[in-house]
Write a structure and sequence with these properties.
The chain has 287 residues and is α/β, with parallel strands linked by helices. The protein has helices at residues 6-23, 28-35, 39-46, 54-63, 69-82, 97-108, 127-137, 142-155, 174-177, 183-196, 249-265, 269-286, and strands spanning 111-116, 166-172, 202-207, 221-225, 234-239, 242-246. It contains twelve helices and six strands. The protein starts with 5 loop residues before the first helix and ends with a helix. The model has no long low-confidence stretch (mean pLDDT 90).
Length: 287
């Protein structure tokens, strides 16, 4: 499956430009004046949210005093690579920037660790479960709902690539009991979840009801790590009002620590597998 590292290349370029700017003791405002743009645009470039034109990049490299020909060419190549289009998602038409960024980061990730509070993670959802969720969000546009279902199913292809990512999720038990799509759909989803937990690169732990309150009850998150050390880890936060990406070292450390605490509090992978099957069997008796 064709993939694109556009988001990673753009982020890598942004990190390098931020380091060069800070080394030159320049502010966003000062750089913006040189490029005749707003300070916020410089910030977006450094955060990997937008690309940078070759001419502007050359101006920045001169401004920052980067004379090394090899380093300059490496950054120019990163800028070229960040503009290349490619990937299975192109056939699905226009996607929002945050969602496209998630798809591209997932496609490049070496590991994805995180939590889910109320729903089965999108990367482990069955088609019927996903359709029930998405149709509820787009009740008046069945064509758009099917498009989104197709995208979600294609995202799961990362598990079929030669080197699939390590996927580790701590799942609130509530997600096992919420009957999305009805009992049959939910039973099939739970059986698929139990089967996925047997894969060598997938770890699922259930945080049981009896544990009570815990850290991160206010929202799900994912910590993504990448094979190239130049690409910083990223925290992905998703909520009703939108999504957020964090790559500050302090944020990475904080969410990684919370994840470790949740793993310690949750059932073991083996007991979690049994708990998932037990809930599925209970559904079977009530179908």
């Amino acid at each position: 499956m064709a993939t694109s590292g556009t988001s990673l290349r753009r982020r890598r370029l942004g990190v390098a430009l931020r380091e060069l700017r800070e080394h030159a003791s320049l502010t966003h405002q000062q750089v913006g004046l040189t490029l005749d743009c707003s300070p916020s645009k410089i910030s977006r470039i450094e955060n990997g949210e937008v690309g940078v034109r070759r001419g502007d990049l050359l101006v920045l490299l001169d401004l920052y005093g980067l004379d090394d020909a090899g380093q300059r060419e490496e950054l120019l190549e990163l800028a070229r690579e960040s503009k290349r289009r490619g990937g299975w998602w192109l056939k699905y038409g226009e996607l929002s920037h945050p969602y496209l960024k998630l798809i591209q980061l997932e496609a490049e990730a070496a590991s994805i660790r995180g939590t889910e509070l109320l729903l089965i993670p999108g990367l482990l959802q069955t088609e019927q479960y996903a359709r029930a969720l998405i149709s509820t969000a787009s009740p008046d546009d069945p064509e758009e709902a099917e498009r989104r279902v197709g995208i979600r199913m294609m995202r799961q292809e990362i598990f079929r690539r030669p080197n699939p990512p390590e996927f580790w999720v701590v799942l609130d038990e509530a997600a096992l009991h919420r009957h999305v799509g009805g009992s049959e759909t939910m039973k099939d989803q739970l059986l698929a979840l139990a089967e996925a937990s047997t894969l060598p690169n997938v770890t699922i732990q259930v945080l049981p009801f009896e544990h009570g309150e815990y850290e991160a009850m206010t929202g799900s998150f994912r910590v993504m790590r990448f094979p190239d050390h130049r690409d910083p880890d990223t925290v992905y936060l998703e909520g009703f009002s939108g999504t957020m990406y964090l790559d500050d070292v302090r944020d990475i450390r904080r969410y990684s620590l919370v994840f470790d605490h949740l793993c310690a509090a949750a059932l073991s992978p083996q007991l979690s597998h049994q708990r998932i099957l037990a809930v599925a069997r209970n559904l079977t008796t009530h179908v």
